[in-house]
Write a structure and sequence with these properties.
This protein is mainly beta and 210 residues long. It has 2 helices and 13 strands; from the N terminus they run βαβββββαβββββββ.
Length: 210
């Protein structure tokens, strides 16, 4: 289960993202984002080595960005292009933060969530399941990653050996209803700057890239 340490992190996650987000193809804001934490959840690494967080942040214009992140105690070999940055954790020391959609541990955990083999955890509470996160998968084949993740202007595609594509949505809408042709989805809520709760689809399983 996830252990949440109450300690200092320098730079903060939002500070790292403020530098990193403008370099992403799916980011639509200015070169100097004004980010606020808006929600998310965690998944457990079965090996207990990698922190996995699905974070939602809002920019000054109200756009909500979905940013899966992993936190590691050492660099992930061959993943330089996915590095969000490094930070000093008051308990764990230096941590390397990566774009989770490009980290195999996070991808495996997300696929397990679709299939019901992983249980979503509260973002900021130790070892507590998050009942707000819902998931579904109606496919017949097991979801296993195949090939490299592909980023475009709307999100990230994760191809699978089942012949379908997991679409990680990076800019969240205001509906938690998946497309009619979706084979599966993950949805949850986030909070706007004025305190309103919004439910959105975070990721979907599609028969093709969309």
């Amino acid at each position: 289960m996830s252990i949440i340490h109450r300690t200092t992190i320098k730079p903060t996650k939002l500070e790292l993202l403020s530098t990193w987000l403008p370099t992403r193809t799916w980011y639509r804001g200015s070169a100097a984002p004004e980010l606020a934490k808006a929600g998310g959840f965690r998944l457990d690494d079965p090996e207990g080595e990698v922190g996995i967080e699905f974070m939602v942040v809002t920019d000054a214009d109200g756009t909500a960005y979905h940013v899966p992140l992993t936190y590691r105690g050492a660099p992930l070999p061959g993943a330089e292009q996915a590095l969000v940055g490094t930070m000093e954790h008051g308990v764990l020391g230096t941590r390397w933060a990566y774009d989770g959609a490009h980290d195999p541990v996070c991808v495996a955990a997300l696929l397990a969530l679709f299939e019901g083999r992983a249980e979503p955890q509260m973002q900021s509470v130790d070892s507590t399941p998050d009942p707000d996160i819902v998931r579904s998968y109606q496919g017949d084949a097991e979801l296993r990653p195949e090939g490299a993740p592909l980023d475009d202007e709307d999100g990230t595609d994760l191809h699978t050996t089942a012949g379908c594509v997991v679409r990680v949505r990076r800019r969240l809408g205001d509906s938690d209803v998946p497309p009619s042709d979706a084979l599966g989805h993950v949805a949850g809520h986030w909070t706007t700057a004025d305190g309103a709760s919004v439910r959105s689809v975070f990721a979907v399983v599609l028969t093709r890239s969309a």
